[in-house]
């Protein structure tokens, strides 16, 4: 099989995935997440139900299509932090970058999408699960980065505090969105909230998991 053929197949897969996601999002916002079925989405996207579930094993994944980045992002940010940078400093920097670009991973989504999530107990529960998974991933990285012993509680305790900050700020973005504020207004308000939250954590965990300078 040629490289060109493989590339075309991958492109087709990405296009199919995006088509399914786009139709699902439209239907969710029109009808509500819980009232939209996989069959509805398959019909709209002109694919088989099995095709939908092959690309999106969970129905929630169709609505929360940034879930993988949501879970893995903070852990990766800590793993890739700069020399002399603590876990808190790295996450703070990354969060403010997300605010500047109105990143959907930290909650920027638009009023209709935010309302769709808020009106679905299933999606609200799934977001709670994703927050938990994100803290688990962050715990593993912190343990590895600090050389913690298997039963050392400190990585979990720090990950819970850092993850809690992200939970609070995600909720703030959603609240402002549901209030009908523009992305620019939300960014300004959440940036101020983030400064308060991260400043509050600084005395407790600001010196934790500081990457050693090289050279």
Automatic annotation (TrEMBL):
Keywords: DNA-binding, Transcription, Transcription regulation. Transmembrane segments: none annotated. GO terms for molecular function: DNA-binding transcription factor activity; transcription cis-regulatory region binding. It comes from the Bacteria. Residues 37-56 bind DNA. The keyword Transcription regulation applies. Residues 14-74 form the HTH tetR-type domain. This is Transcriptional regulator, TetR family. It comes from Streptosporangium roseum (strain ATCC 12428 / DSM 43021 / JCM 3005 / KCTC 9067 / NCIMB 10171 / NRRL 2505 / NI 9100). The lineage of its organism: Bacteria, Bacillati, Actinomycetota, Actinomycetes, Streptosporangiales.
